[in-house]
Amino acid sequence: MYVCLCHAVTEDEILDAVDMGAHTESAVAEITHAGTGCGSCLERVSDLLDGAAPYGCRLRALAASA
Fold first, then answer.
1. How many CA atoms, within 13 angstroms, populate the side-chain half-sphere of residue 14?
2. How far is CA 25 from CA 13, 18, 50, 56, in A?
3. Domains defined along the chain, listed by start
4. Long-range contacts for 7-13 (Cβ within 8 Å, ≥24 apart)?
5. Are 38 and 3 contacting, i.e. CB atoms less than 8 angstroms apart?
6. Contact, 25 vs 57, CB < 8 A?
7. Could you tell me if 43 and 6 are in contact, meaning their C-beta atoms sit under 8 angstroms apart?
8. Which pLDDT belongs to residue 21?
9. How far apart are CA 8 and CA 50, in angstroms?
10. What pLDDT, on the 0 to 100 scale, is given for residue 46?
11. Is 17 exposed, middle or buried (0-12, 13-18, 19+ CB in 10 A)?
12. pTM attached to this predicted model
């Protein structure tokens, strides 16, 4: 399933980026370009990071504490 329509990035591509060491939205964007277009996919990217990373998404935790 596509997560980022602007750059045609799939869920599997994002999870592959996580496997390659991307643990933040910006790291995923650097590898896949997801979230660098209109930005509407960032919540889904963050949700995928939460599910894939052992400690969840650090950027979401920082945003919640602000």
1. 31
2. 13, 10, 11, 11
3. 2-65 (1.10.10.1100)
4. 7/32, 7/33, 7/34, 7/36, 7/37, 9/33, 9/34, 9/41, 11/48
5. no
6. yes
7. no
8. 87
9. 21
10. 92
11. buried
12. 0.77
Distances (CA, A) of 15 to 4, 32, 63: 13, 10, 22
Q: Give CA–CA dist 4/8, Å, rounded.
A: 6
**60 token code pair:** 């979401």
Residue from 38, 18, 53, 40 nearest 61 by CA: 53
CB 4 within 8 A of CB 32: yes
What are the structure tokens assigned to 50, written together? 């939460």
